[in-house]
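quick one, 146 residues, struct below
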Amino acid sequence: MSVSPAARRKARHYAMQALYQWQMTGAAINQIETEFHTDNDMSKVDVAYFRELVHGVPKHLTELEEGFTAYLQGRELQELDPITLALLRLATYEFKHRLDVPYKVVINEAVALAKKFGAADSHKFINGVLDRAAAELRAVEVKANK
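---
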């Protein structure tokens, strides 16, 4: 059974919010995941994908940040707002660990979430960082697409 793009989109949406909460509070990821299941209607969410993202990002944090920090256009990791940071971590996780998701989908989803939740124009910054990160992390796929 394939999962609908809408269910995946909702999984990313909630995962970004859960990661934001984790970054801001330092609460246990299991506790945050439980709160999301309690506080939200998860019936139209790809729950397995949500769980993978929410647990996978903290687990691979150093590796993920190494995947995009070179492309921060002179900015430091600490200078990024929490939404931008959560989205870059999330998208880089998908680049590295979900090769089944096309890199363009990863970028488009992160940009859409940045437009919805991020600071003004943060979507442009995220698009630029992820574009460059994809060229390295998904080199074969990016070259095949040109």
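The longest helix spans residues 5-25.
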